[in-house]
Amino acid sequence: MSSEVVGVGERRWVNGLLGLAAWFVGALYFFPIFWMIANSFKEEAVANADPTLSFSPTLDRYRDVTGETVGLLGFSEAFGNSIRVVLASTVIVLVLAIPAAYALSIYPIKKWRDVLFFFISTKFLPLVASILPIWILARELDLLNTQRVLVILYTAMNLPLAVWMLRSFFQEVPKELVEAAEIDGASLFGQLRSVILPIAGPGIAATALLCVIFAWNEYFFAVQLNAADAQTVPIWVTGNVSTRGNFIAKLSAASVLASLPVVIAGWVAQKRMIRGLAMGAIK
Amino acid sequence: MASVTYEQATRFYSGTERPAVDSLDLDIVDGELLVLVGPSGSGKSTALRMLAGLEPLDGGDIMIGDRNVSAVRPRDRDIAMVFQNYALYPQMTVAENMGFALKQQKVPKDQRREKVLEAAKILDLEPYLDRKPKNLSGGQRQRVAMGRAIVRDPAVFLMDEPLSNLDAKLRVQTRTQLAELQQRLGVTTVYVTHDQVEAMTMGHRVAVLKDGILQQCDTPGTLYHSPANRFVAGFIGSPAMNVLDVDNDGAPRLAGVEVRLADGGVEPATVEAVGFRPEAATLADGAPLRGRIRTVEDLGSEVFVHVQIATGDATSEQVDVVVKMPPPFAGQPDDTVGVQLTGELHTFDAEGTRTATTSAQFVA
Amino acid sequence: MSETAALPSHATPWRRRLPLLPALIFTIVLTQVPFLMSLFYSLTNWRINPPTPREFIGVENYTGLLDNQQFVDAAWVSVKMTASSVLLALLFGTLLALLLDRKFLGQGLIRTLIITPFLIMPVVAGLIWSNQMFSSSFGVLNWLVEQAGFGPTEFVSRYPLASIVTVLVWQWTPFMMLIMLAGLQSQPSDVLEAARVDGATSWGIFRQLTLPHLRRYMELGMLLGTIYLIQVFDHILVMTGGGPGSTNLPFFVYRRSIGGGWLFGLASAFSIVVVVASIVIATFALRVLSNLLEGEEAA
User: What CATH number does the domain containing B336 carry?
Assistant: First the structure.
């Protein structure tokens, strides 16, 4: 660990000064979000005037955005849709990626490098560029305006990342344990359950968290493929931008609500996510 | 070249009750190879790191020569250190590893190259100068770690268990080379190990530590023949000395058998424990201390017999002793034998301090 | 990691491949089918506005593609946007990681605050910045600028690409910071101690040991960052709508297909070119990945 306490003979105050600098930088970095939160508690007239921090806070904006139906969509429908879609796609991603990662790490196939490269290379294709065929396919298969089409797309979107990260986590499982399970007669499923999942559990959680973040925040496909019924939270948030009248405070309230689930999950699972992001590819 | 002195050096870790190193006093002479030995948790590595400046002192001082270095940065102490896992710089070649310290001192390139070559010759590292650590075997890495230290020509060498990651045979080989090297270079060396055989074969003097407290610091011979207390007696020597608690009813008794001391200047009634080395005893048919052979270890040049003494007392613990016998030895497990003393016996008091060393006999 | 561990006698190579197949087939279908469809459409003159029957015209859509100034501009914007946001995020992320890599009161809290921008929706980030920070009406930055004596500036209109890049860097710096923090903390402590004993100053340790060690993490950061930043769309949509100099290739293709142009045939040709370009970039980037993997094996 290079973050040690002050070494012998080093000047103590340097560390303290840098700590202060970190506080300053951190606060500044967070400021835009802090401002958004502040705006969400203001009256519209206050938010749409010169920036100020003296105001009497109100929960009215939150009532506004959760109460009324924006466009075609209410708060609880949007959240319900998002939760269903995100959970479903993340579960499917794990179901597909865990065996795949197994086949690339524990008893690796000969061409594991090529397969891994293939998975990563698919992430370089801007999915946005394929929107036309995807839209046409969705229409032909009667999947427009459904949650299913988003589940499929989000799964495709997150699968390569999940395979990559899970592979690295599985590599940290000691081979002897898996071999012992195999000798005891365990099949793939049994090995996963008794040895691999318990040890790689935190890594799997980190991977799942990242999939949830990217799926929850996804906007483009949600808006292109769902004109009406199955709209998700990102669409609900942007629905608060109106051309007539002031909207900043309401938009802020909606944004806070929309961001809350993922931000809380990210805060709580921070340490795991840190491990997941970097250790997911470099040990 | 310099002496090293620990004066009441103390180190606490927050959250623990007793200090990791407790008021250590040690005087290391210029040119000496002093070994710090002890079980894990004894504070030996911590004491070394305090000398290196990698751990701060919570009390006392450390001197190198006449300089008080207690608050001096590691890089200003003129020391070189060999780490247990070698700590080689992974992105640099062997030559760059060895030349690193000189580079920090802004020594010009050709001089650096010269010194590195010199050290490489001594350690047989010339063919590997352009390799990176990941392409070296364990033994080669160890030598690079040594080379990195000797290139610097410092006042003190510090070595933190440099041999423990080598396989047994290589360890013995390297041990001798290391000791020779130190003799030749004459640099004061502080050497940490948990292996008492290593300690005994290498050190001019050996300091035994337990729980952060210095037990004894002496030459190997003195440690062997005149251990300061039970712990040192049992720690030094392989196989270990037989240290046994005795019952005392005015005279020390072992499983009912009296341990009659020749006049050693100690009151028999104060003896709480006795100790004798395997070579200080023998097995004889008529000997009074009876027991049953558990195992026989035949090493070829000598035989060690493990005997379980019949205490005859259901509540007392098993008493096992090891006796060294000359080959060939005919006894078998489960045979009944008698143990008799032929050499020195040490007596210990209630605190474990050695009170006397004398000859003695078991008397029925 | 061994290339192929010893197989139990009853196993065949197919037994090893089987667990991989569901994920592999799923990915192949979902990436290749749209690609083939695009390829097919790109060879036609299909358009919806005005509605035209789809006729095969061969490679006509492709000739003159490179003469299409807007296409070239969009390609150039893609390069600028991706490169600047990846590199700036990496730079700031590294600086932040260096700052945060020490024990100080509230370290965990500060780190939590800094990673939050990464967690919020791209559309939300774009909207916060364009309405609340950059806006010439009531934006905070504007207020600061006016306090300093300059006139009100509508940042997003005046500097569309820079505004977008600012938000991208704000959101992705935490990601890079986390990777670099992992890199800093994975340095073996005894090697750093050895350097201190060997006489290196803190700056010397950083330059000679830490930076080389971090190289692999920087490569990882650039690889992952590029993957996501090449596909930026949401920010452009909510901040500038593709305004001057801020349309990248994905946005360009979208605008020409179902985002307003309805020129399905032509747009498909564009998208094929984009796909081919991404394959080229991917091959290059994967060479980096293979170095990373090799480093992993030797470790």
Answer: 2.40.50.140
| Other beta carbons less than 10 A from residue B138's beta carbon | 12
- pTM: predicted TM-score of the whole model, two decimal places: 0.84
pLDDT digits (tens, 9 = 90+) for C24-43: 999 999 888 888 888 888 88
Distance CA B151, CA B80 (A): 9
Q: Domain residues for B297?
A: 241-363
Residues B75 and B207 in one domain: yes
CB pair distance less than 8 Å for A35 and C231 = no
Residue B236 within a domain: no
Q: Which domains does chain A have, with CATH numbers?
A: 62-176+203-282 (1.10.3720.10)
Residue B142 sits in a domain of what CATH number? 3.40.50.300
Amino acid at B74: P
pLDDT tens-digit series, residues B31-61: 999 999 999 889 999 999 999 999 999 999 9
Which domains, from first to last, does chain C contain? 59-298 (1.10.3720.10)
- Residue contacts between B and C (CB atoms, under 8 Å): 64
Instruction: Please give, rounded to a whole number of angstroms, the shortest distance from the CA of C123 to a CA of chain A.
Output: 7
State whether B146 and B278 are in the same domain. Answer: no
Beta-carbon separation of C190 and B148 below 8 A: no
User: Which residue in the set A1, A107, A278 is minimally distant from C179, CB to CB?
Assistant: A278
A24 contacts chain C (CB < 8 A): no
All residues of chain A having their beta carbon less than 8 Å from the beta carbon of residue B62 are none
- C124–chain A Cβ distance below 8 A for any pair: yes
Summarised one tens digit per residue, pLDDT across range A231-267 is: 888 888 887 777 666 778 888 888 898 999 999 888 8
Where a domain ends, among B181, B208, B231? B231
Residue A58 to residue B331: CA distance in whole angstroms:
95
Query: What does the pLDDT read at residue A112?
Result: 83
Same domain, B218 and B147: yes
Peptide bond between residue A99 and the one before it cis (omega within 30 degrees of 0): no
C190 vs B: CB within 8 A = yes
The bridge status of strand B188-193 relative to strand B156-160 is parallel
Three-state DSSP state, B326: coil
